[in-house]
Amino acid sequence: MNKELAIILVNWNQYELTKSCIYSIFNCSYQNFKIIVVDNCSKDKSVSHLKNDFTKVHFIQNNSNLGFTGANNKGIKYAKSEGYEYIMLLNNDTEVDKNFIEPLLNRLNLEKKIGAVQPLILNYHNKKTVWNFGGRFNKFFGIPLTLNKNIELNSLKNESLTEWISGCCFVFRTSLVDLIGYLDDDYFVYYEDADYSFKIKNTGYNLGIVKESIIYHHEGKSWIQKKSWEGSVSPYTHYLNIRNHIYFIKKHSSEFNIFGVWIYQIFKIFSYLVYFTIKLRFVKLKMVYKGLIDGLNYKKT
Prior knowledge:
alpha/beta; 301 residues; globular
């Protein structure tokens, strides 16, 4: 049997979520795949538990937290070396419909100008509403916009192409890695999917969305922290959001209106500073400032 699909999951101290995700994949009607779990130096013994649960999964353990980008790149390199034709990046905070794989692969097999595809992503706790089904870029302000978020499933149009694909789940041709390389490790997490989408489209490929393929997403499980004075969202998440957005627009500055981009950034950062000052969230204030400085100091490579 040809090695058709490698499915890469990143785990970081999330045993229960990763276990549920893997179980849902193994319940799929399509079975010609290999699951690769890349662990980002978890401290909760989740890897030893997962190894006991799943003997057919390949595990890669990192000695430090390499983020979404670094961990997925480890998995992509392994899948590429093993000769898989397609690679799927799938968040571990998802569960999948049993028929979700075939429509994605069929689209790639039938349409050679499609470089990558994503499924319809529904909210796990309200399976009749959409979490993500395609995206577009606001090129005046330099913002990747998620389309169809929280609309009712029965109101969803049957679109076939998108301007960018969600890192929550997408499948791409392994051959693309030779053309555009790996995920940009500078991001760590956030905006790396929009960046990779630009790189894929710049090779001449289109990006597809497939309504017949469905997964369910536990929103916020990867970035919500234990509630404290600083709120439920980690200060580091705000740092990455500020820094990476500036990374992104600087890397792809030719795609955007430079005036609109910086007007938006000034408004966005000022709003954060005012809000966190009012809330007396000084750690977050510091992280917003650090994200701004690190973003401005970023140089394209």
